[in-house]
Write a structure and sequence with these properties.
25% of the residues lie in helices and 13% in strands. The chain is α+β, with helices and mostly antiparallel strands and 85 residues long.
């Protein structure tokens, strides 16, 4: 998961976003129950990145675990969580 926030008018604050990364991840995991999996208890690995950009966006990458899962995750990390594959 990569959540991108556009800084608000008080962007010079130490913490420009009120959203906690754990709450973002939890909301996405819960929201995908019954859609991507039966229950988020099935998820064995999760990673979340919070960053700031020109517009708000959320990218979610889901892969079924197999022997290539580590390579896929490494590629995703190197791309900064971008949906450009």
């Amino acid at each position: 998961v990569r959540a991108v926030f556009k800084p608000g008018p008080r962007a010079n604050r130490k913490y420009p976003s009120y959203a906690d990364i754990d709450n973002i991840l939890k909301a996405i995991l819960d929201g995908l129950n019954g859609v991507a999996w039966k229950d988020d208890r099935q998820v064995i690995t999760a990673m979340a990145i919070k960053s700031y950009g020109n517009q708000d966006a959320t990218y979610v990458y889901i892969a079924e675990y197999d022997e290539n899962a580590e390579k896929i995750l490494t590629h995703f990390i190197q791309r900064g969580g971008s949906d450009d594959t």
